[in-house]
């Protein structure tokens, strides 16, 4: 967690902005490259925000 916001384990990358980018249609490969995340992490971000809406 970063200031109480969820992050991907072992990173300081915030989950919700990544999930929002995916929802906007940002290319998965671009996100994987920019943030050094895996396909599993990107999928987990979507699951997380669906399970824990604001």
From TrEMBL:
It comes from the Bacteria. This is DUF433 domain-containing protein.
């Amino acid at each position: 967690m970063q200031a109480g916001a969820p992050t991907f384990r072992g990173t300081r990358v915030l989950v919700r902005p990544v999930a929002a980018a995916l929802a906007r249609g940002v290319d998965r490969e671009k996100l994987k490259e920019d943030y050094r995340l895996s396909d599993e992490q990107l999928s987990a971000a979507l699951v997380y925000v669906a399970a824990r809406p604001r």
